[in-house]
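Hi F.,

I've been meaning to write this up properly since the lab meeting, where we talked about keeping a consistent format for the predictions we share between groups. The idea is simple: the sequence comes first, exactly as it goes in, then the structure tokens exactly as they come out, then a line or two of notes. No screenshots and no reformatting. I'm using this chain as the first example so we have something concrete to point to.
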Amino acid sequence: MRQFWRNIWEILDMVKIGHSVLALPFAFMGAMLAARGWPDGRTTLFILLAMVTARSAALAFNRLADAAIDAANPRTATRSLPQGRLKRNSVRLFVAVNCLLFVWAAGQLNRVCLFLSPLALAVILGYSLTKRFTSATHFILGLGLGLAPVGGWLAVRGDLSLQVLVLGGSVLFWVAGFDILYALQDEDFDRRTGLWSLPARLGSPWARGLAAGCHLLAAAGFFLTGWMAGLHGVYPVAALLGAGLLAGQHIILTLRGATRLPPAFFTLNGLVGLGLGLATWLSLGR
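Output, unedited:
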């Protein structure tokens, strides 16, 4: 029994369940924009289940795909799979169960979500393989998280709107910018091992400039989303604060360097999504 709970803890630590806060607010933001308020309880439940299972499957699959790479990288060598604290078959089972739960949850929302769920899985699982052959890997990760608000909208309405596509694109550039900055930590390792991260391919100065450009587009997109959706009051303030938090990441990077990103990077990114999601709810509730 003790080993069972130890495995559960290792799996939860592996998928960083607390980092679900990065995508969840945007999924519910898409749903709130579609419903013009908070969606009903049943829809809320299955959006939550779909998001948590999709993210858990994606990150666990990433750990499986990158197990050998992680073992060779000093920064990641202490992770559960390289250290043998988790067995590959256990992680494979975890991925399979979460994929099935995701498809089931999507089917409980509507047929459109059900039919599109395999495509969503292809994007979020396939991302883990892309850094072996393309520098677009950061943008494919962004696409995976950019599907969150689109999925939330589809869960409520079953169709698409330009405003949620703008929001999804904003999330894409927000995540891509952050992921480029995150990859700065492994620039030398990626270059030695032939991985296609942008820092390894372009060098740190160009990669940082591209990340800044991505965050500029993301900030503009968040403002545009609010304007298109008619979100007044607190939302523009939250969008402005979010832009400030994005700028803060680049300031921290300039002051501290990119050898090891501080935990504040994750906190700042989580606050961007939480702030915009809360502001959307407050603006629609008026």
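Notes:
The domain at 2-284 is CATH 1.10.357.140 (Tetracycline Repressor; domain 2).
The chain has a mean pLDDT of 90.

If this format works for you, I'll send the rest the same way.

G.
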